[in-house]
Amino acid sequence: MKFGTIYEEYLRAEQDKYLAKCSHVQYKRLKKVLKRCRVGRSSQADDTNAEQQEGNDESSDICQCSSCTLCDQLFFTELTKEASEIAGCFSSRVQRLLQLHVPSGLHRYIWRIRQCFIDDQHIMVQEGRMLLNYVTMNAIAIRKILKKYDKIHGSVSGRDFKIKMQTEHIELLQSPWLIELGAFHLNCNDSDADECEGLLKNVFFKNFSCDLTGAQPVLTMTISETVKYEYSLTCPICLNHCILISTKQPHVTGIIQPIDIIKWRYLKDTLFNPYALSCGHLFCKACACGAASVYIFEGVKSAPPDAKCPVCRADGVFGHAVHMTELDLLLKTRNKDYWRQRLREERTEMVKQSKEYWDSQAMLSMGI
Fold this sequence. Notes:
There is one protein chain. With 368 residues, the protein is mostly helical. 60% of the residues lie in helices and 6% in strands. It has helices spanning 3-15, 27-48, 69-72, 75-101, 106-115, 121-153, 157-167, 176-190, 195-205, 236-248, 252-255, 258-269, 285-291, 325-334, 336-365; strands spanning 208-211, 218-222, 228-232, 274-276, 282-284, 322-323. The strands form two sheets. Strands 1-2-3 form a three-stranded antiparallel beta sheet, covered by helices on one side. A three-stranded antiparallel beta sheet has the order 5-4-6. The radius of gyration is 25 Å and the shape is globular. The relative contact order is 0.08.
């Protein structure tokens, strides 16, 4: 079955029931735009070259230009608008879902009282699964329509558009809320549930896994046989710091056993209190603040506008950083000792920075 048919069936099955107000890729309409371009270019070729037989060569129906005005006026403008709306809809729906799962302040007490009468966890899991299908189907639709554009035009404009989507932070599979949604499912699977409900949930939750014991901690989400997401849970700054320490102290390998070295690395480069920058890269809060030259107690979002991501060097990515609360809860649950150790280290560093800050303010006020 072709993807267009699968996509239309998905829209009929899911769109009316759950996503009535959410945008989606107009896959069928965009294909018609490309078809009109192909027909128009082939007819133009027939007018300029009367000797060429119609339909003699399939490649004659395909325009070999790197840029097509007929397509570009409608195609990329429409696709950019749809991708932005889908990314916004997905992030807002996931945020609302996670606020119900991990409430704070007064909402926490209201939620606990509500749980005494109604168990909404099963409904929340269903909505989370729907959102995963929503972002996956639209991401595949965008990928296929861009591939078709490049095939018809013999260009790389579709590939360049993917890079543009990443730059503008509307790439669906790069969204930090997708990682939060995967962590949410794992947290729900770890929580207490009725036996019957647990059996029903395990059919879906078995496709989610979080491995913190390997050489590289990773979060895996398997949506189908062909769609699998893997996200590294390693902080690049922590990992780089561990490598620097190991190179500066070569005698460590002669004292510590190999298994202890692996554990030592694991305790140092796994994310703690993670934040996702707008570019999609994950960092510990302390590492992100250090990279932006701000104090930990000031927060990641207080970074200056010209602060750059330590990995991709993109600027302006700290202002809309996302605190990964579900991922932090998952890491805390899976390894409590490690989480407590990092919490102590962060608090110690925060107190040290606070003392330095107020000492400098006092000296500044005295004119020293």
